[in-house]
Amino acid sequence: MLFHVEMTVKLPPSMPAEQAAEIKATEKAYSQELQRSGKWRHLWRVAGSYSNVSIFDVEDNTELQELVSNLPLFPYMEISVKPLCRHPSSVREDDS
Ligand SMILES: O=C(O)C[C@H]1C=CC(=O)O1
């Protein structure tokens, strides 16, 4: 199942810079592992913001919840999820 996920990061201004850098580094490694596995299919920065638009390819809602809630930045993000299905006019056979 494909999901459109938008994440907006809101780190508390009081968080020490070293702690923020550590969480971001752990987040990067985890997200890259998921991208390589094919579960996190697309990751785009929304220009001018600390938000991303992502496409996840997972088994079901439960797997999406598990992956997203394990993100190190999860406690500091607003997240919205939209389920996707194939558009009948799409010319991309593999939905890439
Ligand atoms: O920067 C972000 O958008 C938040 C998050 C998503 C991937 C990652 O490395 O950090």
UniProtKB/TrEMBL annotation:
Keywords: Aromatic hydrocarbons catabolism, Isomerase. It catalyses: (S)-muconolactone = (4,5-dihydro-5-oxofuran-2-yl)-acetate. Pathway: Aromatic compound metabolism; beta-ketoadipate pathway; 5-oxo-4,5-dihydro-2-furylacetate from catechol: step 3/3. Residues 1-89 form the Muconolactone isomerase domain. It comes from the Bacteria. One of its GO terms (molecular function) is muconolactone delta-isomerase activity. Homodecamer. Belongs to the muconolactone Delta-isomerase family. This is Muconolactone Delta-isomerase. It comes from Halomonas korlensis.
